Amino acid sequence: MRLILLGAPGAGKGTVAKLLTQVDGSVQISTGDILRGAVQAGTELGKQADAYMKAGDLVPDSLIMGIMETRLQEPDCAQGFLLDGFPRTIPQAEALKTLLGKLSIKLDVVANIDVPREEILNRLTTRRTCANTACQAIYNVRSQPPKVEGICDKCGSPVVQRADETEEAISKRLDIYNEKTAPLVDFYRAEGLLLTINSPSSEGVVNAIRERIAG
């Protein structure tokens, strides 16, 4: 399958992507992953991206698209790919459309995971992460707490609330998403690729996507 996953922070895109990769061996691709991969590989594009990131600047779309073009032609993408959190803006969506046309790749679907704002706030403000950077196990104080409060089950390090997962920080992230990324819903609706899914469970989202592709 070849698809894009849209959805606000906390909508569950990462979980859905991991479940989908188990269906047919498609690879999950996020811009963060491909940027880190290009930097670690020491490619020319990776070196350029690294310079922007070290300066605290956003990596330009032209550079991201160059790295994306290389990534989509790697052998593991032949089985299929899931773009998680990309594109984020209309210019990126237009550039991606041009790139996919150049590579003769046709998208199966753009899945928009639609979760109410209150539910996202509930999910993320109750999320806790292991402070050990080598572990970073994720817990939820409401639905999946660590066995010992504040202590990671896996490595025994403290479990903390990330600075970007306070209610104020999440509200700001959601506002940015609605301003910059939500217009992609209309873009892909016009392209005839959009599938909006309201299922409360990741399994329900996966099943809806599989039914659309099979249909």
Q: Could you characterize the architecture of this molecule?
A:
This protein is α/β, with parallel strands linked by helices. It has a single domain (2-26, 80-214), classed as 3-Layer(aba) Sandwich (Rossmann fold), CATH 3.40.50.300. Helix content is 48%, strand content 14%. It is built from 9 helices and 8 strands. The protein has helices at residues 13-24, 31-41, 44-54, 61-72, 90-102, 117-125, 167-180, 183-190, 202-214, and strands at residues 2-6, 27-29, 81-84, 109-113, 127-130, 138-140, 159-160, 194-197. The strands form 2 sheets. Strands 2-3-1-4-8 form a 5-stranded parallel β-sheet, with helices on both faces. It starts with a strand and ends with a helix. The mean pLDDT is 92.
Secondary-structure topology with pairs:
Layout (H helix, E strand, L loop, with lengths): L1 E5 L6 H12 L2 E3 L1 H11 L2 H11 L6 H12 L8 E4 L5 H13 L6 E5 L3 H9 L1 E4 L7 E3 L18 E2 L6 H14 L2 H8 L3 E4 L4 H13 L1
Parallel strand pairs: 1-3, 1-4, 2-3, 4-8
Antiparallel strand pairs: 5-6, 5-7
**Which word captures the global form?**
globular
Distance between the termini: 13 Å
Structural class: alpha/beta
Q: What's the mean pLDDT score? A: 92
Helical content stands at: 40-55%
Q: Work out the strand percent.
A: 5-15%
> For the record, what CATH class applies?
Alpha Beta
Query: In the CATH classification, which architecture applies?
Result: 3-Layer(aba) Sandwich
Count of strand segments: 8
- N to C succession of SSEs: EHEHHHEHEHEEEHHEH
